[in-house]
Design a protein that fits this description.
The protein has 20 helices and 22 strands. The protein is an alpha/beta fold and about 600 residues long. The chain folds into three domains: about 130 residues, no CATH class; about 120 residues, NAD(P)-binding Rossmann-like Domain (Rossmann fold, 3-Layer(aba) Sandwich), CATH 3.40.50; about 280 residues, Rossmann fold (3-Layer(aba) Sandwich). The chain has a nine-stranded mixed sheet with strand order 10-9-8-11-12-13-18-22-21, with helices on both faces. Strands 2-1-5-6-7 form a five-stranded mixed sheet, with helices on both faces. The longest helix has about 35 residues. The radius of gyration is 34 Å and the shape is elongated.
Length: about 600
């Protein structure tokens, strides 16, 4: 069978040449007929010479251009280009030869050339269509899709589905909110209405699932589609993001909608040239590189071609995972991996002296609020003391840019986490005032899919068959994907002025109960939801900007610039570096001496200290 197939494949060029020859043999008489006003009496002219010459020239130029020597994809741009070049060459030589030898009007071979080109392209398009149809499995066994969106993503998807012999999907209808696309056809599939017509179109076509083919769709659009599909119990699938789309859409990219799609947003447009300006060719150090934000920062930064990317963490397993995700290997034998604790001043100074980083992204931190409420000294030593150690090392060793990753809990802080991160923002501002390093902080809310995030907690509880827990029915939080947060952090480092806090626009706050209810409904039977009550110093609603802060959006619509006053630390203290008490009247001091927990100042004291 394989021999027969190979033999047939070797004969394909001969078949193509034979068809092209027949097309020329038909095109020339038709051209004569058209040239002489549809007169049949002219067809008794000697047409043998023009036809033989045209066929000979087709063979000559076809072989010369590789039309019959290479395997072209039927109807592809490359094949059409070669077909056109061959037909044009034949037409030009044929025109010159017949005019000189027989006095044939030049319009005849030129018209024949156009007819032949049209015929050859049509034949190849028909071959391609036949091949695609013959390779598709029986449509009765395919999942029927209504595709939401009729743009580039949908067009690329439909081409992929038609060309794949193993596809398990078939598109039966398109939906798009653009009125100009109504009744438009893509690959033979018609736009039958807007997204609001989803239920009706799905019912008429007996659809098995809805597929969102809008790579730039934000979470509100995804939620809209899922809500419209819910009454019909219609599963909703989605294509990848814009970044992934450029790599080409495959059937394997189609997946069910998840909570990240429902809560996240489409990637923000940023000036990549601005990022490249301070990253490309520079030595870059990322602390907390084994964590969720730190590892994604590393993946984002490596795209801009730093001269060296140093990844620092005290978690060896985290470093292993980060290296594996970036390089596809994790031998842990590269000097770009640094195992160290940011609380060790001597070790950090040694690292900066050896690596001389020009840009530092500081993502290392203790971030779990309930745990820090029980062990505030640890939060103080890592978040405040560790940051100060890094700032001092950066200034001492000539680091040009320092980007401190903060949190929305630093705005109007009430918890240990919030206060420690607020202090680090002010220490960062002070370091920038002292120079020579330009320092900025970047503040944002929860990131989706990070270690310890609400979605990870729900998944772990569901895996054990436990109820999912929510602290309060009305609690809300800001959410952003790790990818978008990291991208904006890198960009903020390019546009921030020294000493500023740059605050990322997180969109509208999301009620955690809504997330829990959607998650619970995806299970059969639905999961139970249990309310546990707010934890100590936990806010019901987070802020992004403190009540005493005023911001401006100077460069990017999603980034607010806030000027924060610097906080000068004491140079020495037995328990580690801490702020000068004389300058800490407005800040609730979290002590470390004797490892005793100190109570955060109440609202009245905060208001009094700010007065």
């Amino acid at each position: 069978m394989n021999r027969l197939f190979d033999a047939a494949r070797r004969r394909l060029p001969l078949v193509h040449f034979a068809v092209d020859s027949v097309i020329w043999a038909v095109a020339i008489p038709i051209a004569v007929w058209l040239r002489y006003d549809y007169g049949f009496d002219q067809l008794d002219r000697d047409l043998v010479l023009p036809i033989v010459l045209a066929v000979a020239l087709q063979a000559l130029f076809g072989l010369g251009y590789g039309l019959y020597r290479r395997r072209w994809r039927y109807g592809s741009f490359d094949e059409v280009r070669i077909v056109a070049a061959t037909a044009a060459s034949v037409g030009i030589v044929l025109t010159a030869s017949l005019w000189q030898w027989t006095g044939t009007p030049r319009s005849v071979p030129l018209l024949a050339m156009g007819l032949s080109l049209l015929g050859q392209i049509t034949a190849r398009s028909m071959w391609r269509l036949r091949n695609e149809r013959s390779r598709r499995p029986n449509g009765d066994h395919l999942e029927r899709l209504v595709v939401v969106g009729a743009g580039e993503g949908a067009e690329q998807l439909l081409r992929t589905l038609r060309a794949s012999p193993d596809s398990k999907y078939t598109a039966v209808a398109l939906l798009d909110d653009d009125p100009a696309k109504r009744n438009l056809r893509l690959s033979g599939i018609r736009v039958e209405g807007t997204v609001d017509d989803l239920a009706d179109v799905a019912r008429r076509h007996h659809v098995d699932a809805a597929l969102i083919a809008v790579p730039s769709a934000d979470s509100s659009f995804v939620r809209r589609v899922t809500e419209l599909a819910e009454p019909s119990k219609l599963p909703v699938l989605i294509l990848p993001s814009v970044d992934q789309l450029f790599a080409g859409v495959g059937e394997g990219d189609i997946r069910p909608v998840n909570e990240i799609d429902l809560l996240g947003r489409h990637p923000a447009d940023i000036d990549t040239a601005a990022i490249a300006g301070y990253i490309t060719g520079k030595r870059v150090l990322v602390t907390g590189a084994g964590g969720s934000i730190g590892s994604e920062l590393c993946r984002q930064l490596v795209r801009f071609g730093p001269a060296k990317l140093f990844m620092l963490d005290r978690d060896e397993s985290g470093l292993h995972s980060t290296q594996l995700s970036i390089e596809g290997r994790a031998m842990l034998d590269d000097d770009s991996l640094i195992l160290a604790d940011i609380r060790d001043a001597a070790r950090i100074d040694e690292i900066f002296a050896a690596t001389r980083p020009e840009v530092v992204f500081h993502a290392a931190a203790l971030k779990h609020q309930p745990l820090l409420e029980m062990h505030p000294a640890e939060g103080w030593k890592t978040n405040v003391g560790g940051t100060l150690i890094l700032l001092n090392a950066a200034r001492a060793h000539g680091t040009a840019r320092f980007v401190n990753v903060s949190t929305d809990k630093a705005a109007n802080p009430t918890s240990v986490l919030g206060w420690t991160k607020r202090i680090t923002e002010r220490l960062t501002a002070n370091a920038s005032e002292q120079g020579p390093t330009e320092c900025v902080s970047v503040r944002f809310g929860n990131v989706l899919g990070s270690n310890g995030s609400v979605l990870k907690a729900f998944e772990a509880q569901a895996a054990k068959g436990l109820p999912i827990t929510v602290t309060h029915p009305d609690i809300t939080r800001f959410f952003m994907t790790i990818e978008e947060a990291s991208r904006l952090v890198v960009y903020a480092g390019a546009i921030g002025s020294p000493g500023e806090v740059l605050i990322l626009d997180m969109g509208e706050p999301v009620r955690i109960l809504d997330v829990a209810e959607r998650f619970a409904a995806q299970h059969d039977p639905p999961l139970e939801i249990v309310f546990t009550g707010l934890r100590p110093n936990e806010k019901l609603h987070e802020d992004l900007i403190s009540s005493d802060e005023f911001g401006k959006r100077r460069v990017h619509e999603l980034i607010t610039h806030v000027t924060t006053p610097g906080l000068s630390p004491m140079s020495e203290m037995s328990a580690g570096p801490v702020p000068d008490p004389d300058q800490m009247q407005e800040i609730a001091l979290i002590g470390v001496a004797d490892r005793r927990r100190r109570v955060i100042a109440d609202d009245e004291r905060i208001a009094r200290s700010r007065a």
